[in-house]
Write a structure and sequence with these properties.
Elements lengths: L12 E3 L13 H13 L4 E3 L8 H10 L7 E6 L1 E4 L2 E4 L3 H15 L4 E8 L2 H9 L1 H13 L3 E8 L5 H15 L3 E5 L7 H4 L1 H7 L2 E5 L14
Parallel strand pairs: 1-2, 2-3, 3-6, 6-7, 7-8, 8-9
Antiparallel strand pairs: 4-5
Length: about 220
């Protein structure tokens, strides 16, 4: 169970950043179908993606690949940024969030998203969130009321954000009803242990740990 969301997820999930081609390799719908078919056989049901993974392209691949199998998987995506050529710009107003959500729903070929995450990726995002807290709150409440999202969470960027991000997360729990927190966590990057995990335990937040093998560095992919 993912914290107190009531959403049952597998221990291992699928991250889709590279599916957008941002890692240098381009994936086809057939590639994604094969990955998801294998994941289903292994009991993996959690997919994490984002609106800013190259103009919703990762979301579109997921939507096309899943087809009628949508309900077999739990989909988490993010908001707060808008992709444009050569840059990603902030999109934190109520109107921008609602538009981003509709675009994600269309790309994913679904009428609901299981987990909608605040994408707190950079230091300046914290300022934007504070400035737009009312609009974010209104947008998330509207989305839940309309059945467009099941739960809200926050995705934190690098370790250097965890101190300030932890304090901001407390506010988001209280103001926005955040129920999960996603962090970068592995044997080399353990900042979440100090600032985030105690907070998650206190509030019964679901934890999503990404890059557990440090993008392959802790696997056999790289040799000393």
């Amino acid at each position: 169970m993912l914290g107190k969301t009531g959403i049952k997820v597998s221990v291992v999930g699928i991250e889709t950043h590279q599916w957008s081609g941002m890692g240098g390799k381009f994936f086809t719908v057939s590639d994604i179908r094969a990955i998801l078919k294998r994941a289903e056989k292994l009991g993996i049901n959690f997919i994490d993606t984002s609106e800013c993974y190259f103009f919703h392209s990762a979301e579109r691949l997921i939507g096309e690949a899943l087809g009628k199998n949508r309900k077999k998987f739990i989909i988490a995506t993010k908001f707060g940024h808008k992709s444009e050529p050569q840059r990603i710009i902030p999109a934190w107003t109520k109107e921008a969030i609602q538009k981003s959500l509709e675009n994600s729903l269309k790309a994913l070929n679904t009428d609901y998203i299981d987990l909608y995450q605040i994408h707190l990726n950079r230091a300046e995002d914290m300022m934007h969130i504070r400035e737009n807290i009312r609009g974010i709150k209104t947008a998330l409440r509207w989305a839940k009321r309309m059945g467009k999202i099941r739960a809200a969470g926050v995705c934190l960027g690098d370790d250097n954000l965890y101190d300030m991000g932890g304090r901001l997360t407390t506010m988001m729990i209280q103001e926005l009803g955040v129920q999960t927190v996603q962090v970068r966590y592995n044997r080399l990057q353990r900042g979440a242990e100090r600032h985030i995990f105690p907070l998650a335990k206190k509030h019964n937040l679901g934890i999503i740990a990404r890059v557990p093998l440090a993008k392959g560095y802790l696997s056999t992919r790289f040799k000393p």
